[in-house]
# Entry
Amino acid sequence: MGAGAKPQEDAADATDAYGIPIVPDPADGASHKRRAITDAALAEFLAEGYSAASMDAITRASGVSKATVYKHFGSKERLFLAVVGGVLPTTYADPEPSGSPLTDAPDLRAALVRLTTARARVLLRPDIMSLRRLVIGETERFPQLGRLWCRVGHDTHDGPLVEALTELDARGTLDVPDPALAVQQLIAATVGVPQLVRTFSPDAEISDAELARMIASGVDLFLARYAARP
# Structure
């Protein structure tokens, strides 16, 4: 598991460029056991965190023996990193490219509102928020997960937006001297507030109308700073 694989000499301890364990694919007959283990482990880690998670509970939920779990993953630490590091890139990824609608949009404000609203709805999903809280809670122990989270966020969201703002600046549609900073400001002003609220108050209600108000206000703030002047 993990992108950018750079295995170490000992295959049992091999990790990728982000420090996520590289776990070889199982034989065909064992693939269903691997999936059962990872599903059970993710549920247990999300519910209990790393320290309180029980390997006995994981083995019971997965329906395999503890020896089988250790055979596949080696240790609780490698299981945690492999499971969370493996699910993060696919779960967190936005199904739509973040930047492409902007450069051809006839109404830039409306396109920015649509894009940031779509991103907010992805990031505010209960499964994403649970994963976010887990990574935040364990990032001091496992900083590689924080680094991976940032990289996935850049590759799937921020990077395409930086490219789009760079092109809009070149066309004269926007005046963006620092596109990377501008992207951070756009996301902070739109998605950042509801995400922060839900991170620390999981049961907080954010209505569609309130989300729309926050997004529109943030986009207007962004355009007030970066819209090209005649």
User: Anything to note?
Assistant: Residues 26 and 59 are 17 Å apart (CA to CA).
